[in-house]
Amino acid sequence: MTDNDVENKTQNQAAPQEHREAYKVLIVDDEPDFVEALRRTLESNSYQVATCSNRPAVQEAMKTHPSVIVLGTLAPAGETFAVYEWLERDPRYRNIPIMVIDARLDDRPLRGLRRFEGLQMDMEDYASKPIEPASVMLRLRSLLQAATAKIRVLVTDDHTMVRTGICSVLSLQKDIEVVGEAADGMQALDKALRLVPNVALMDIVMPVMSGIEATKLIVKQCPETKVLILTQYDEEENMIVAKQSGAFGFIPKKAASSELLVGIRSVALGKYYPPSFAELIVK
To answer: Strand, coil or helix: what is 211?
Structure first.
């Protein structure tokens, strides 16, 4: 990518046009009237719809890779949360946006989310019954627009071959766009401020300015950008320092081939990666 290519990038990309005929919505709910009303509304607006009323059916339906999931009510209490946990554990599905629709207040002891479950869920949207199908459709549309927008990535590493390799991998992804490269922390800060990427991949040890110092400044001056540390220095001490600096994720280079794409997609959604990174205690 040349400097002219970078300069020609706009700082704020418009959301892509919708192609609703390609969107697949999975409705997980065991209340037939609610499911049928929502299905009719979505299908009349050109969405493809599948429905499930129990956990085994969800596991089978996920093989079709839905674009978005409506996670409604399942009996007994705890079953909805069990489905959510299963989705989050599977790297194939954890980045599919989820709209949770909780039970009516009176029904929650039987089929709704218990308080401790709700606190552990990192869903993209939440509502509770009763809710109009048209309202659900509008909220799903917003989720899909956000999910299908390309993730803008800035790649920072002082080794040209490493940057080239990373950019080659990212260029093959339909939902990711490399908007710039930087060879040190100072360049990373400058390009983050000019290009406003969604994610900045950041090495730690670099000339001029370290990745840690650059992360601190990017977090402060460009909060729209989430920093994902990618380094060969994978000691816990470095993870803690990265967390203290404001990074959203930490991936050792030896694990980059299997974790890089998942990590980028996770931090772009504002989620810590790996999940254990969120649990690090910093002082």
So the answer is: helix
Amino acid at position 3, single letter: D
CB 210 within 8 Å of CB 236: no
The dihedrals phi and psi of 25, each to the nearest 5 degrees, come to: -110, 125
Instruction: Give the side-chain half-sphere CA count within 13 A for 140.
Output: 28
Concatenated DSSP letters of 16-32: PPP-GGG-EEEEE-S-H
Question: Of the candidates 132, 137, 138, 111, which has an alpha carbon nearest to the alpha carbon of residue 49?
Answer: 137
pLDDT in tens, 87-110: 988 878 877 899 999 999 999 999
Q: Residue 5: its pLDDT value, please?
A: 42
pTM (predicted TM-score): 0.56
Domains of the chain and any CATH numbers: 20-147 (3.40.50.2300), 150-279 (3.40.50.2300)
How many CB atoms within 10 Å of residue 259?
18
**Peptide bond connecting 252 to the previous residue in cis, omega within 30 degrees of 0:** no
Return the closest-CA partner of residue 271 out of 93, 123, 99. Answer: 123
pLDDT at residue 14 in the model: 36
Percent share of the chain, pLDDT over 70? 91
CA gap 222, 226 in Å, rounded: 9
At 38 the pLDDT is 98
Average pLDDT over residues 37-43: 97
Contact 131/138 with Cβ under 8 angstroms? no
Distances (CA, A) of 157 to 32, 182, 185, 269: 53, 6, 9, 23
- Per DSSP, the three-state class of 20 is helix
